[in-house]
Amino acid sequence: MASPEQRIELVKSESRRIQQYLGVLSAEDMARPSACDAWEVGDVVAHLTAAVDLYEAAISKGITGDSNPPEGLSAAGVSSLMTRLEENTQRVINLRQDMGDQLLTAFSKRCEDLTQLLEGLADTDWQKLCYHPGKVIPVATYVDLRLAELAIHEWDIRSKLDVSTELSALCLPAVMDFISAFVVGTMFRPGIGQTETIRFRFELTGTVPSSHDIVVENRNVHMESAREATPNVTFRCDTETFVLVAYGRISLNKAESEGRLTVKGDRELASLFSS
To answer: Domains along the chain?
Structure first.
């Protein structure tokens, strides 16, 4: 596993690479629809820009031992994901419109601000707990969150302009850590309405070869390393496909029909996963 310092360097290099890519896009490209529902390419950039406000506020409080929400935000875990997404959608569009032709300049500046904040952290800060609207998380998880946001949203931008676009392979280890620590059970909750225990196994190849179980138990969902317990359904795919499915960028059915994923086991339960 990469050290926090190595992941900060990756945040810096990935941010700069994305800035360079955005810098050559035309105004027409920036206005094209992205793979993020309801957002143009420019809206995605505005989201990545505005997200730094939360990072700064939450981490600055967290390293002092305060994991309460910044002023004006609800307590962690209180609002639903759907509510937060709905509120954020129009707010980001308004922000993009307000920034106008200063959008890329603002994005670059906020990336630099975040880098300075992260580079100023002490070794003892990484496991300190910070506010997030979904749930309280350590500072280190915020770094993985940023890498996940950069990877997923770069794909949102590029994939509509180039169908051969792939997720950043350098970011995928951090994205997998973030999915396990935060996404599963908070954003991604397959089969949550079931009362019986269900074990979905993912056998992954590619950048981060591994085997994980997503377990639905007592109406809760969590992700763990695969164990000896027999899964109800086994999915086989590469790491990128798993990430895109977990983030709702492609459906399980689409991944299977394109030959990116195979399914073994209870097909009825497999359909619950995709719902």
So the answer is: 4-183 (1.20.120.450), 198-274 (3.30.1050.10)
Structure token digits, residue 270? 């497999």
Decide: 215 and 247 in contact? Cβ < 8 Å. Answer: no
Residue-wise pLDDT for 9-23, tens only, equals 999 999 999 999 999
Residue 219 main-chain phi, psi, to 5 deg: 65, 20
DSSP 38-84: T-BHHHHHHHHHHHHHHHHHHHHHHTTT--SPPTT-PPTTTS-HHHH
Query: Could you read off the pLDDT of 61-108 as tens digits, one per residue?
Result: 999 999 999 999 999 988 877 788 888 999 999 999 999 999 999 999
Closest CA relative to residue 260, chosen from 167, 190, 186: 167
Judge if pTM exceeds 0.85.
Answer: yes
